[in-house]
Amino acid sequence: MFESTKVKYIQYPVRAGDTFYSIGQHFAVPIEELIEVNSNQDPRALQIGSIVKVPYRGQSLAMGPLSSDRASLDRLTSSRPQPHGSSLKMIRLNKAAKYIGRMSWPVGSGGGRISSTFGRRWLTFHEGIDIAAPQGVTVMAAHDGQVVFSGNSLRGYGNLIVLKGDGVLTVYGHNRANHVRTGDYVSRGERIAEVGMSGKASGAHLHFETRIKDQDGKNAAIDPLVFYSK
Q1: Which of 155, 159, 185 is nearest to 171 (CA)?
Q2: Which residues, 6+ apart, have CB-to-CB distance to 118 below 8 Å?
Q3: Could you give the CA distance from residue 85 to residue 82 in angstroms, rounded to a whole number?
Q4: What confidence tens digit (pLDDT) does each residue in 12-49 have?
Q5: Where are the domains of the chain?
Q6: pTM of the predicted model, to two decimals?
Q7: Structural class in CATH, domain 67-228
Q8: Is 186 helix (H, G, I), strand (E, B) or coil?
Q9: Superfamily grouping for domain 8-56
Q10: Phi-psi category of 167—alpha, beta or left, where left has phi over 0 and alpha has psi -120 to 50?
């Protein structure tokens, strides 16, 4: 029996392809707990449009894309999946040092609130941060570079932008609308999208990732907050 004191619930509407396992992965909640608090649901056949209660105890829930979308983004960015463990083992922080202070905050004039941090989840690893902000707030390019992807073919990320700069890649997901196209060149601080909740998102926010080359030449995810530290 799972502890029920001080538990809150998110009401999650079931979508095509959802299972208790996939929902548990997205929210970093054990599948056993989901099944227990949703005893009225048949775990073998969730009905599209039915409501699954997702419990949490004050922590930030990491609603995220399907694992297949995560793998697709890794291929798109030619990146190495982040291992379970220290987020800094794969890369050398001195490689990130030259970018510190050179990036603009990606949500309108330094706004937004970090609703989910970088790091380990129950069954997954959150390779970016989530910045909660109202829908329509400006999403800005964190650095100069070329848009190497702008689209919504990775369903879990919704409207997604991947920006390639001088040795750094940044990822902007769940946008309400993208305002740049693949191949465009943009400048640091330029408006590229609007905050939204497209794809697999439980509320309006920007999913933001930063990646740099690791020692093997792969684009490894690093905590975006490293680049904004003083």
Answers
A1: 159
A2: 87, 126, 127, 128, 129, 221, 223, 224, 225
A3: 9
A4: 778 777 788 777 766 667 777 888 888 888 877 788 88
A5: 8-56, 67-228
A6: 0.64
A7: mainly beta
A8: strand
A9: LysM domain (3.10.350.10)
A10: left
